Automatic annotation (TrEMBL):
It comes from the Eukaryota. This is Phage terminase large subunit N-terminal domain-containing protein. InterPro entries: P-loop_NTPase, Phage_terminase_lsu, Terminase_L_N, Viral_DNA_packaging_terminase. Residues 16-188 form the Phage terminase large subunit N-terminal domain. Gene3D superfamilies: 3.30.420.280, P-loop containing nucleotide triphosphate hydrolases (3.40.50.300).
Length: 427
């Protein structure tokens, strides 16, 4: 495989204690950093080594598949948390939150590889730093940029000369394996904050509208399709509003997700809270006799979950990672794969007013303003839980549905001809 000048430069210059590859998605960061890590496993200082990611699954997907592919060895089992490689112990550690600090206490390391460093807790990183106590120990890390006040940038990247740290900024053009058409498709998959960070590779501040590509093309008057099934998202409130959205899903037509109806009960405005039994009756009426495959609700809404399940409603815990969910919904909004019935006035208003909190951004955190966002949360629970890859197909390429269709049907001309012949019903 050919390598770019930036990949070669980072490989030969990564001789410091901290070596960090920063930049856009699919920019070739992982390939050059993994090659260097393999070299250090073979010829670096003796002692234990560790590969760290958000969890074991991401380590396998982002690092081990490539690493063992280069080596020509079988990839360790997903249940394997320790192996031997080049005569040294190699540990695999997931660090989803600060509790993971305890998993590496007492370790003595010569080498460490960190996947997606900005997603790790700061306390974990500092503990890892203290564990690299073998003479000549090195840390290798990859990451997409976060906010400019993120601890990794303020306390490490900006102090590179003080800390024996070197870093490189990568863009899509630094990955020679990507063709121009693919780069165009990838760029079209991100907008706003995510575009600045994941495509431009900038440490960008969260500001402005969250769903900045929402427009009239994301709205419709009446649906003219027979959906495959329905999903529901619920944001549960006691002193706050309870909101729900009913989404019809049709994978073989574009757009694939229609928000057909909304439910909204604001206890503050009504002057009283509804009991769980009352809300269950409301939700049953809201769903009616539709083919609902799943109702996604905040995992913290324990009492309502129990009541819904007792009423034989198919309830599942929603994915409640706010940034993850916003990114997924934003991708569908940008691709016009989510359309909202014009009668859903509360959801439509909230989608257009949903904004990043500038005070939190200055502190280095990406958080929405928590005002009039309950319907947005309900939609996020629904979509991000049902489609965690952010698409219906080709999850390895991050294509929107429209882009995927064009790829399948051989480019714009053939796609347009075929699409007009079948009236938009592709597949």
């Amino acid at each position: 495989m050919s390598t770019s000048d930036k990949q070669n430069q980072s490989y030969y210059e990564s001789t410091h204690r901290f070596n960090i590859w920063i930049g856009s998605v699919r920019a070739g960061k992982t390939y050059s950093s993994v090659r260097k890590f393999i070299d250090r496993l073979q010829f670096g200082p003796p002692g234990d080594a560790m590969i760290i990611g958000v969890n074991r699954a991401t380590i396998d997907r982002n690092v081990l598949t490539l690493m063992y592919g280069i080596l020509g060895f079988p990839v360790p089992s997903p249940k394997c948390m320790k192996t031997q490689l080049f005569g040294r112990n190699l540990y695999f550690v997931g660090a989803p939150d600060v509790s993971a600090v305890s998993t590496i206490k007492g370790s003595t390391l010569a080498l460490a590889y960190v996947d997606e460093a900005t997603d790790l807790p700061e306390n974990f990183w500092k503990m890892l730093e203290s564990r690299l106590s073998v003479p000549g120990a090195q840390l290798f890390a990859t990451t997409n940029p976060d906010g400019p006040a993120h601890w990794l940038k303020k306390d490490y990247i900006d102090r590179a000369e003080e800390l024996d740290l070197v870093y490189w900024n990568f863009t899509l053009d630094d990955n020679p394996s990507l063709d121009e058409e693919y780069k165009k498709r990838l760029k079209a998959s991100y907008t706003g904050l995510w575009y600045n960070r994941f495509i431009l590779g900038e440490w960008a501040l969260a500001s402005g509208a969250i769903y900045d590509t929402y427009d009239h093309f994301n709205e419709y008057d009446c649906a003219k399709h027979n959906p495959s099934y329905y999903i529901v998202g619920i944001d549960y409130g006691t002193t706050n509003a309870t909101a729900a959205v009913l989404c019809s899903v049709t994978p073989n037509m574009y757009p694939q997700i229609h928000v057909e109806e909304e439910y909204y009960y604001d206890s503050a405005k009504k002057g009283r809270s509804k009991t769980d039994d009352e809300l269950v009756r409301d939700i049953k009426d809201f769903i009616g006799y539709k083919n609902v495959q799943a109702v996604y609700i905040d995992p913290a809404a324990a009492s309502l979950k129990i009541a819904l399940r007792q009423a034989d409603i198919p309830v599942l815990d929603a994915k409640n990672d706010v940034l993850f969910g916003i990114k997924i919904v934003g991708k569908f909004i940008a691709g016009k794969n989510i359309v909202i019935q014009k009668g859903c006035t509360i959801l439509r208003e909230q989608m257009q007013s949903y904004a990043w909190d500038p005070k939190q951004a200055i502190r280095g955190e990406d958080k929405p303003i928590k005002v009039n966002d309950h319907s947005c949360d309900a939609l996020r629970y629904c979509v991000a839980s049902a489609f965690p890859q952010g698409e219906f197909g080709s999850p390895d390429e991050n294509l929107t549905i429209e882009q995927m269709k064009r790829k399948i049907y051989g480019g714009n001309d053939m796609y347009n001809q075929f699409n007009s012949e079948v009236g938009g019903q592709i597949f």
